[in-house]
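Work package 3, deliverable 3.1, input record:
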Amino acid sequence: MNLPEFLDMGKHAFYVWGSYGVVALFMLLEVVLLVLKKRSLTQSIARLARLNRE
Amino acid sequence: MSIFTKAFWLQLSSPKVFYPIADKSIPWLLTATVLLLLVGLYYAFIVAPVDYQQGNSYRIMFIHVPAAWMGMWIYVVMCIYAIIGLIWNTRLSNMMAAALAPTGALFTFLALWTGALWGKPTWGAYWVWDARLTSFLILLFLYFGFMSLRAAIDDPRRAARASALLAMVGIVNIPIIYFSVKWWNTLHQGASITLDKAPTMAASMFTAMMIMAAAFLTYTFAVAFMRIRNEILEKEKNSAWVNEIVGPEK
């Protein structure tokens, strides 16, 4: 089972990789968005704390 | 007190108690998800044989079915938390319901998407107004309704109450989805995996499906905890304990 044959998925490549690709994309996207959100939140909290101290 | 009762009462605790628990378990949950996905995909593509009828397009099943299960299961859990929030007014339950909704909507959409891409080579159509597909589309709209209703109302308590009522009304859709293939003559096939009898599929396919479902489950916990962690940070940003956790500016 070589790679091109594997990727071809018996001529159903579009459907199989279209499904797996979108699922992987959205699941990754959700985790990345949540991490970015947390980073921006912690930064704003730390900045708020600094401003309050001054 | 067993771990389950402890976990149950945990969500009645305050955000301050829940934050470190969520914070510590997220890395574990994410690594478990990645490991399960790797093993699951290995089974799905290497171990599971080619289907004698559908060839390889059936491999979409290994994400279509877990996504559909998660779409329904998350809605039920979201509804339970909404009800608990409605009865005892515990903020954490409302946060849990709000944290689950986007992931539930995502899995519902992914189930519809993968189903369409599986339907084209197998049925010859991306979409048919079939009982199972239509009731699942309604589930997607219910998720959107829950999220938009909650976002539209400023007062968090009233928002939680309104969206909880919507969730409870929509819960009737879950058994309709599940039994649609039995009640009506649907193009969508019946359940191959049921609780009362052995799954009508090859063992390696069943194993691949279960591992992928477990991966989606740990993923849901991880993402819900991450969203709750952000929600707590946002709501409690003026409190001392959050400043302590966040620490000085880097």
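Chain B has a mean pLDDT of 89.
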